């Protein structure tokens, strides 16, 4: 419908230029008619879009599983740390990047 309104606007512009150049009253009325029809189509399109958004809000609150990329994902808790490595002062110093005197 927006394309039709755009075409009507173009027809109205061309008719306006032609009506001014030729001083033809009939072409001027064609310009007015095309402009009014284009505005009516734009209003109808805006009303339909607003009604579509109002009806679509309920659907957005409950997204279908797997369709929403931003859906909450419950990741499992981190596993217990590896207990095979003993925590010695030298090992903890290595992790911090500090060097202990030997």
Tell me about this structure:
- The protein is an all-alpha fold and 102 residues long.
- It has a domain at 2-52.
- The protein has helices spanning 2-22, 25-61, 89-96.
- Helix 1 packs antiparallel against helix 2 (25-61).
- The longest helix is centred in the middle third of the chain and has 37 residues, at 25-61.
- The N and C termini lie far apart (81 Å).
- The mean pLDDT is 76.
Secondary structure: elements and pairs:
Blueprint (H helix, E strand, L loop, with lengths): L1 H21 L2 H37 L27 H8 L6
Helix pairs in contact: 1-2
What share of residues are in beta strands? under 5%
Helices, by number, come to 3
Low-confidence stretches: none
Distance between the termini: 81 Å
Mean pLDDT: 76
What share of residues is helical?
Answer: 55-70%
Structural class: mainly alpha
Radius of gyration: 35 Å
What overall geometry do the principal axes of the alpha carbons give?
elongated
Order of helices and strands: HHH
Q: What's the total count of β strands? A: 0
Sheet having the most strands: none
